TrEMBL record:
The organism's taxonomic lineage, starting at the top: Bacteria, Pseudomonadati, Bacteroidota, Sphingobacteriia, Sphingobacteriales
Name used for this protein in its record: Uncharacterized protein
Superkingdom of origin: Bacteria
The species this protein was found in: Daejeonella lutea
Length: 100
């Protein structure tokens, strides 16, 4: 069963940082042919944005962070934003927050 984790082309999410000031993250979707959906993460509103890594989702809705900038709590905030964004667009009431 494919869980809905689809964003439009781009979204911005506010994350509460554990170290340093809170930040707005730009999330850019990238769908691969293999069924893996990934989202590239950058600082928002910057002329030369910093790269925060990416979050990948499989067809079951499990996700993994590929990067070294965000803490686990920050990764969860971004993943939950992506999942909730997809669910709100399809009116699905499944939490879907999983790890692999």
């Amino acid at each position: 069963m494919m869980h809905n984790t689809s964003l439009m082309n781009e979204a911005k999410a506010w994350i509460k940082r554990e170290r340093g000031p809170n930040e707005v993250v730009k999330i850019i979707g990238n769908t691969a042919a293999s069924g893996i959906v990934s989202y590239e993460l950058f600082t928002a509103y910057s002329e030369n944005p910093d790269y925060f890594g990416r979050i990948l989702f499989d067809t079951e809705g499990f996700w993994i962070y590929d990067g070294d900038v965000l803490t686990i709590a920050e990764q969860e905030q971004v993943a939950k934003f992506i999942i909730n964004f997809g669910e709100s667009s399809k009116h699905v009431e499944d939490d879907g927050l999983k790890f692999f």
